């Protein structure tokens, strides 16, 4: 059995991601540490692979489990989250699981009402329209009380994974969460949220700081509950550009990493690898590689070889097959994977899609992607 104590005696590169958590639970021993080794920059026998949105509507069993329940009720049910997380693992030999949840549980914890409207997406009943609306947010947040259901889902899932592969926890980054809270949902331009940045920079910084203050204990709590790696999603980086990004996104991305690392130390938990995925944030690749994360995720618009040149050798890269490549034939997917692996080169790499799987995709093609990564990466290592 893995250590279950509070001690931080295991090395930062402890293959199983460290002690089992501060709630006294012992977790089954990790069998496949390929993903964690690659995340820490170590050599692996093959390239590990997982997919963003690997739990999703493209799986019939996902639709069956979700049937009749609204999205955020599902998120609040540890049993349902655990089941949804495990479903793709039963079909494909993935090298990591990601806990089923959503980035928008954090705005909910701050007192905002969010629903998932079918066909429309996330919808806030009362978005933040002006500076004074910040007073409506319920701070400080007691994360154990407001988000304890996520911690319970993580602990249950870590148990039921039986050590097969590591479990990834996640959150949104401050700017992406702010953009949803101001827009009240998706938006092609994010003009309302950007209006805040230009018109009310001080209030924007206040909101971003306040979100950071929730995200830090939330992410540390996920590790305490059993998460073995953490991914931070800056999904709306593409709306900013270099200048706004360096003022309103990057400082908070950095702060999250620094404070989560300190928080893990203080809690006596071993470090876990941190992943930053700033979708369409190619303009800030160098900065992201220096922002305190072990892994930098890239979307499919970035050439992997160029990305490697720009970030140097200090980080592991993750990505980046165009999700729409899964519409291609299985043979073609194999060729595209081969090309992708070549372009990433010999440095540590975690294979993934450049963004999430879409609901109309064929599960067999997801399987073909995973299988091709394993097969071609093993072949490359024999060369
Ligand atoms: O498998 C996984 O990747 C883990 C689960 C996960 C979900 N959301 C489940 C989900 C993760 C990591 C997220 C993160 C998330 N949520 C992000 C960042 C990643 C990204 O896509 O850039 C964002 C922006 C959200 C907010 C959100 N939640 C959106 C925009 C939507 C889409 C709405 C729609 O109609 O498709 C969701 C809903 C959501 N979150 C679904 C899933 C599986 C689909 C809706 C459903 O199951 O009913």
In short:
The protein is built from 14 helices and 9 strands. It has helices at 34-39, 60-66, 71-75, 78-91, 105-109, 143-160, 174-183, 191-199, 201-225, 241-266, 285-289, 304-311, 330-344, 363-382; strands at 97-98, 114-117, 121-124, 167-172, 229-234, 274-278, 295-297, 316-321, 349-353. The strands form 2 sheets. The chain has a 7-stranded parallel sheet. Strands 2-3 form a two-stranded antiparallel sheet.
Topology overview:
Layout: H1 34-39, H2 60-66, H3 71-75, H4 78-91, E1 97-98, H5 105-109, E2 114-117, E3 121-124, H6 143-160, E4 167-172, H7 174-183, H8 191-199, H9 201-225, E5 229-234, H10 241-266, E6 274-278, H11 285-289, E7 295-297, H12 304-311, E8 316-321, H13 330-344, E9 349-353, H14 363-382
Parallel strand pairs: 1-4, 4-5, 5-6, 6-7, 7-8, 8-9
Antiparallel strand pairs: 2-3
Helix pairs in contact: 2-4, 4-6, 6-9, 7-8, 7-9, 8-9, 9-10, 13-14
Bound molecules: coproporphyrinogen III (CP3).
pLDDT averaged residue by residue = 94
Number of strands: 9
- Report the uncertain regions: 1-22
The N- and C-terminal alpha carbons lie at a distance of 37 Å
Largest sheet: 7 strands, parallel
The coarse silhouette is globular
Proportion of residues in β-strands: 5-15%
CATH class: Alpha Beta
- The CATH architecture category equals Alpha-Beta Barrel
As for the number of domains, it is 1
Number of helices: 14
Overview of this structure, please?
The protein is of the alpha/beta class and 383 residues long. It has 14 helices and nine strands. The protein has a single domain, classed as Alpha-Beta Barrel (TIM Barrel), CATH 3.20.20. A hairpin with a 3-residue loop joins strand 2 and strand 3. Helix 7 packs across helix 9, helix 9 runs parallel beside helix 10 and helix 13 (330-344) crosses helix 14. The structure holds coproporphyrinogen III. Coproporphyrinogen III binds at residues 52-57, 66, 71, 98, 100, 102-104, 116, 121-122, 170, 186, 233, 235, 279, 356.
């Amino acid at each position: 059995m893995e250590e279950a104590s509070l001690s931080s005696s295991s090395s930062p590169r402890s293959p199983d991601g460290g002690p089992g958590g501060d709630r006294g639970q012992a977790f089954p021993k990790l069998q496949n540490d390929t993903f964690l080794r690659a995340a820490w920059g170590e050599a692996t026998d093959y390239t590990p692979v997982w997919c963003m949105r690997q739990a999703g509507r493209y799986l019939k069993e996902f639709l069956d489990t979700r049937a009749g329940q609204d999205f955020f009720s599902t998120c609040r049910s540890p049993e349902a989250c655990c089941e949804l997380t495990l479903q793709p693992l039963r079909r494909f030999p993935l090298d990591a699981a990601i806990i089923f949840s959503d980035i928008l549980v954090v705005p909910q914890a701050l007192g905002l009402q969010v629903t998932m409207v079918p066909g429309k997406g996330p919808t806030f009943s009362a978005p933040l329209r002006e500076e004074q609306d910040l007073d409506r947010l319920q701070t400080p947040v007691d994360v154990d009380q407001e988000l304890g259901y996520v911690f319970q889902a993580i602990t249950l899932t870590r148990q039921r994974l039986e050590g097969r592969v590591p479990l990834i926890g996640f959150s949104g980054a401050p700017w992406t969460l702010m953009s949803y809270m101001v827009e009240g949902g998706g938006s092609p331009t994010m003009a309302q949220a950007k209006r805040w940045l230009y018109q009310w920079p001080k209030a924007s910084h206040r909101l971003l700081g306040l979100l950071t203050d929730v995200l830090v204990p939330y992410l540390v709590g996920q590790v305490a509950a059993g998460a073995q790696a953490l991914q931070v999603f800056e999904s709306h980086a593409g709306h900013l550009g270099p200048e706004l990004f360096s003022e309103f996104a990057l400082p908070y991305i950095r702060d999250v990493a620094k404070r989560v690392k300190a928080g893990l130390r203080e809690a006596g938990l071993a470090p876990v690898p941190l992943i930053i995925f700033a979708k369409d944030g190619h303009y800030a690749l160098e900065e992201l590689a220096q922002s305190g994360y072990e892994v930098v995720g890239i979307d499919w618009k970035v050439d992997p070889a160029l990305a490697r040149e720009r970030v140097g050798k200090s980080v592991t890269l993750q990505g980046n097959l165009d999700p729409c490549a899964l519409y291609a034939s299985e043979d073609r997917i194999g060729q595209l994977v081969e090309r992708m692996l070549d372009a990433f080169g010999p440095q540590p790499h975690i294979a993934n899609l450049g963004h999430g799987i879409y609901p109309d995709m064929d599960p067999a093609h997801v399987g073909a992607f995973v299988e091709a990564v394993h097969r071609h990466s093993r072949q490359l290592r024999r060369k």
